[in-house]
Amino acid sequence: MRILVTGLAGFTGYYIKQVLEARADTVIGLKSDLTNISLLADEIKLVNPDAVIHLAGISFIAHNTAVDFYTVNLLGTYNLLHCLSIYAPNIKSILLASSANIYGNSTEGVLTEITPPNPANDYAISKWAMEKMALLWLNRLPLFIVRPFNYTGIRQNEQFLLPKIVAHFVRKQKTIELGNLDITREFNDVRTIAEIYADLLNRAPIGETINICTGEGHSIREIISLCEEIVGYSIQVKTSQNLIRSSEIQSLIGDPTKLKSFIGNISPKTITDTLQWMLNHPQT
């Protein structure tokens, strides 16, 4: 298949490209700015993709300019779908990446696709709005939505939590400033996520919304302890109030039942596997 990937140069895109090319697909990275609908239309006409993986967007929750979330994540996606509906007659499958952050500060232990959304920040609201907008295109486009829970790996920017922690251990720093150590998250491996995305794109579950998760959660305290065990030394953790968000989501763990119904059982890498990979292959 000729697969157009938005955000191919980003963290997830790097691994998506490896997986798709290993499956003999042709991978083409979108070059146009999603906010420039004229250039976007011209490029989609030229590429004429069979499938699309839409990863591009503002994903760092603490991004300084809130309006960017809506300009890129919502309006940029609208522009993409508009152009695909007109200029991509061979399109068979479109994966739109939303986020598990749309669930917000849920009181449920494990979140399913029917858990009521309760977005707690601009990033999450922009993704929730994107989902609702995208559903308006279902009669014209073969799209489906994925809600990935947290994932990490080599090449992820240090502004994100796990790469920051790993970098401190790699540099053998004595102290690290962190926020709430008791929040619980899934920290899945980006290599697993890339395989799942490729499987779903091929399956094309049109009209569905699917949690991308394993159901395994870990606290930040646990992550620190595992890193200390792997590298063989301890680090002093200083709690910074500046790093504790007022809208902090305490627990974000997903139910993978629906995901497995489409692609079968998954064999995720353990958090220890992922941390060893990151700690033993420091990024430059």
Quick structural summary:
With 284 residues, this protein is of the alpha/beta class.
List keywords for this structure.
284 residues, alpha/beta, three-stranded mixed β-sheet, Rossmann fold
Overview of the molecule:
This protein is α/β, with parallel strands linked by helices. It has a domain of 196 residues: Rossmann fold (3-Layer(aba) Sandwich), CATH 3.40.50. Helices cover 39% and strands 16% of the residues. The strands form four sheets. It has a six-stranded parallel beta sheet, with helices on one face. A three-stranded mixed beta sheet has the order 11-8-13. Strands 6-9 form a two-stranded parallel sheet. The two termini are 33 Å apart.
What's the layout of helices and strands?
Blueprint: E1 2-6, H1 11-22, E2 26-29, H2 37-47, E3 51-54, H3 66-87, E4 93-97, H4 122-134, E5 143-148, E6 151-152, H5 161-170, E7 175-178, E8 184-185, E9 188-189, H6 190-203, E10 209-212, E11 218-219, H7 220-231, E12 236-239, E13 251-252, H8 257-263, H9 271-280
